[in-house]
Amino acid sequence: IPYLRRKGINKINLLVLTHPHLDHLEGLLPILREFKVDMVLDSGLICDISEYREFISIIKEKNIPYYQANAGDNFVFSKNMEMLLLNPIYTSNIYNESDFNNASIVVKLFYKNSKFLFTGDIEEIAEKRMLVWQNNLKSDILKVAHHGSSSSSSLEFVNEVDPIIAVISVGKNNFGHPSPKIIERLEDKNIKVYRTDENGTIIIRTDGKKYWVRTLR
Prior knowledge:
Layout: H1 2-6, E1 11-12, E2 15-17, H2 22-25, H3 28-34, E3 36-37, E4 40-42, H4 50-61, E5 66-68, E6 74-76, E7 81-87, E8 106-111, E9 114-118, H5 124-130, E10 141-143, H6 155-161, E11 165-168, H7 180-188, E12 192-195, H8 196-199, E13 201-206, E14 211-216
Parallel strand pairs: 1-3, 2-4, 4-5, 9-10, 10-11, 11-12
Antiparallel strand pairs: 6-7, 7-8, 8-9, 13-14
């Protein structure tokens, strides 16, 4: 939020809750409260915790358009930018609470010729299902799934995505994340790895062809 404020940003075009686990949900509440949000995209998974109830309550109170994600949904924002959803492949009532990670919304974002893949907390079981997307997985920038956990980023999935940059969102001493095995897997493929526990805030800019990465601590 401080970074958005410094940049003079007071409106969020699209807010995505990948799945209703607290580490993904809690930080969205002040954004919903303090910013104008044009649209909310949710997995549709219902979680009986006070934070999720507040999330839904704010959306209703502010009359924000709300959409439940399904794989294959496509959103066109302009002639240069669009978004394709690659997960959840199944409807939300298929998943139970122990499988919420694999129901995470996965977003493929296109800007001109640039491609970003945001993977939530999916694990290998969801990655295998998503291989049906084949070339649609190919992306320049990968937000690594589940904080770099060893339960995600299977070799087959990483090979299909084939990114040039990988970003790991992780706090210090975060349940052993990221896994050294996953870091090694990415670096063995000459993928440049950035991680928030070491690099701080990671900002990636693109003109649709080239990329510029900046880190802030």
